[in-house]
Amino acid sequence: MQIKSHVETDQSELSNTTRRVFCTDLLLTSAGLLLAAPAATKAAAPQDSMVAYPPRKIEGAETLLPGSSLYFNYPTRNDAAVLLRLSESEYRAYSRRCSHAGCSVDFHPASRCLMCPCHRGTYDARMGHVMFGPPQRPLDEIVLEVRAGGHLWAVGKNSRNTEIITQNLKGGD
């Protein structure tokens, strides 16, 4: 009686692999990697797209106290925006249009968040990222610039195309 070792068994199975089986496996693996690459790239490197608009001075920005906000319109008079003064030297501005359903978000100083009244979406005031609720991407950021005389200007809009990966914990869908 002859007993084959584990190594001999693996080698004999490998030698029985035909060229056709090998090529088929190689083709299927390559196709799978090719199809998975765009999704992996999208998750690994979210894209921001900065669009320059005509600069507009934000009137009243210099009178804001830290922890307060000022509503203004940018880039057009129909596009509501909010300027936040987070600290003595830190300003942030965002579009007030919720990325979920388009309702206007409001700044809540006590919680330092931007909240959407329609579906309770909540955004972080420091970065504009989604903290809670149905929105799948951050608020669009208004690009700011300090110009001569210490005046604050809006100079562009940064549409952040990052999506939040959500997990369906209930099973269903």
Question: What is the element string, with H for helices and E for strands?
Answer: HHEEEEEEEEEE
Structural class: alpha+beta
CATH superfamily of the largest domain: Rieske [2Fe-2S] iron-sulphur domain
- Major sheet: 4 strands, antiparallel
Give helix % range. Answer: 10-25%
How much of the residues is beta strand, in percent? 25-35%
Short description:
The protein is an alpha+beta fold and 173 residues long.
Topology:
Elements: H1 6-15, H2 19-44, E1 48-57, E2 68-73, E3 80-87, E4 90-95, E5 106-108, E6 113-115, E7 122-124, E8 130-132, E9 141-147, E10 151-160
Antiparallel strand pairs: 1-10, 2-3, 3-4, 5-6, 6-7, 7-8, 9-10
Give a verbal description of the structure.
By secondary structure, this protein is α+β, with helices and mostly antiparallel strands. The chain has two domains: 39 residues; 113 residues, 3-layer Sandwich (Rieske Iron-sulfur Protein). The chain is built from two helices and ten strands; from the N terminus they run ααββββββββββ. The strands form three sheets. It has a four-stranded antiparallel β-sheet with strand order 5-6-7-8, with no helix packed on it. A three-stranded antiparallel β-sheet has the order 1-10-9, with no helix packed on it. It has a three-stranded antiparallel β-sheet with strand order 2-3-4, with no helix packed on it. It is elongated. It starts with 5 loop residues before the first helix and ends in a 13-residue tail after the last strand. The C terminus is likely disordered.
